[in-house]
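Hi everyone,

Forwarding the result from last night's run.
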Amino acid sequence: MIPRHQTILFIVLLVASTIMGVVLWTTLDRDHKRMMESQDSAPTQAPQVAPAEPATLMVANDADNSVNALNLSLPLPQSPEARARAILGKLLDLYAASGSTHPVPGGAASIAQVFLLPIPGNGGKTLPGGPELAVINFTGTFVAGHPSGLQTETLTIMSICGTLHANLPRVTQVRFLVDGQPRDTLAGHADLTRTYLTAETIPTEGIHP
């Protein structure tokens, strides 16, 4: 026979457990309703899409060893570095597409980062709106898959530098990295250890504005 005090203790614990279960269920139900109400009342916002803006791509052509201007309208972000990466990504997408005039695999994913750095003047100071150095960080996959040859490698470098200068005139110098590290050549020929001056890489022939 169960002692009377144990019976009373069991009943008290049972009642307390029941009350706690009811309180917990009520709290959860109230919080769920509150969350649903806040979701219903929140306005539905469409994802933000960058507005389309004019952009100029300096597209290489292996047939006549030229670089030609192609004017497009592209959705471009506001950040200069993001804009540079988006524009160069479109250029490399053209090269990776079927029927490209300068076939190079990889596309936009070939560019890991683009950095824009101010170039100090003679006094060692940088001025707002002054010239900039663009540092292009290629992926190792892009470099490994790039066709080898002095002409095709040079055209890739020229078209990238020309495209940067056409859309970001403040970019006057360009350097290249591969997976964040210096590299001797692009695919055995084009020098990646030097700093390229955009004024020297803009072709004087074969441009169709």
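DSSP finds five helices and six strands in the chain.

Cheers,
N.
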